[in-house]
Design brief:
The chain folds into 2 domains: 226 residues, TIM Barrel, CATH 3.20.20; 52 residues, no CATH class. The protein is globular. Helix 2 runs parallel beside helix 3 and helix 11 packs across helix 12. The chain is of the alpha/beta class.
Length: 289
């Protein structure tokens, strides 16, 4: 699946907001049938889903297009899946995943839907509860899962905690989610920032998430998309330095050297791998433009 730096949600019952996707440079767009759509409007939103998806495809939407269904324990799930798989999407977002026996039937249904789709469908799962965090390592290995995201607000509500600016109260769960995703070889998408007008808060939270190993972030506004794309892309200076480091390491290797001094730092295997990862990411990003 394509790299996801920015993961933008909009309610399924607001077609005007969904049409604005066409003017936004997000890597992945999500039509939200879950929290973003009021209970009384879910049925109508499902019925309208094929039309809005067809419109976005016709207008050449850039980026992946997913539908967030309701959680596995919801009475809306089956109807959501039918509506989502009838539309021309890239996959589904399943929130609040907790147990293998809940997620595996959804993955199987997606496999069946794949047979009638011209696209490669996948699932992005949400770790948003105590049980989700506890079972994250198992959940991340389910077939057809391409990414996990961490939902801090639902998680802290589930454990009856309190949210703080520092975020220490969710650090363990946030770390467990990225660890599970990376161990399974899938993408990890960082928590939302609900203070939607506080750009510095978003930048600080995004930088912390990137330091933890996340590769992208939930976005609630177009401006957050711009910041996420910047925060989760390597800086040009980092890319150039990484290329120089790789070249210096290759030259040293020909002379039988392992660890080398490079621009004032001792460089060995881990730092070389990091540089190679940065260059590979930059090359993949360039290929998608």
């Amino acid at each position: 699946m394509n790299l996801i730096r920015s993961f933008l949600f909009a309610p399924a019952n607001q077609p005007d907001r969904l049409k604005k996707f066409l003017r936004i440079a997000a890597d992945c767009f999500v039509i939200d049938l879950e929290d973003g759509t009021p209970e009384a409007e879910k049925e109508a939103a499902r019925a309208a889903l094929p039309e809005i998806v067809a419109y976005l495809r016709q207008e050449s939407l850039k980026g992946l297009l997913f539908v967030r269904v309701n959680e596995p324990r919801s009475p809306h799930l089956k109807a959501d899946l039918r509506a989502a798989f009838a539309a021309d999407i890239d996959g589904i977002v399943v929130p609040k995943i907790e147990e293998l026996d809940e997620l595996q039937p959804i993955a199987s249904a997606l496999t069946m839907a794949q047979l009638g789709s011209a696209r490669e469908l996948s699932i992005i799962g949400g770790i948003e509860s105590m049980r989700g965090v506890i079972n994250a390592l198992e959940l991340a290995r389910v077939a057809n899962l391409s990414a996990l995201y961490f939902g801090a607000e639902d998680y802290i509500t589930d454990i009856d905690g309190r949210r703080t600016v520092e975020g220490h109260e969710v650090l363990y769960a946030r770390s467990q989610t990225v660890l599970a995703a990376k161990a399974a070889g899938i993408q990890a998408l960082d928590q939302a920032v609900v203070e939607i007008r506080d750009e510095q808060r978003y930048r600080d939270c995004g930088a912390q998430g990137r330091n933890l190993g996340y590769g992208g972030k939930i976005c609630l506004l177009p401006r957050q998309v711009e910041m996420a794309n910047e925060l989760f892309s390597p800086a040009a200076s980092d890319i150039e330095r990484s290329r120089r480091l790789i070249a210096a390491s290759e030259a040293a290797s020909l002379e039988g050297q392992g660890a080398i001094e490079f621009e004032g730092r001792m460089v060995d295997g881990p730092l070389l791998k990091r540089a190679q990862s940065i260059v590979a990411f930059a090359d993949r990003l360039a290929a998608t433009k």
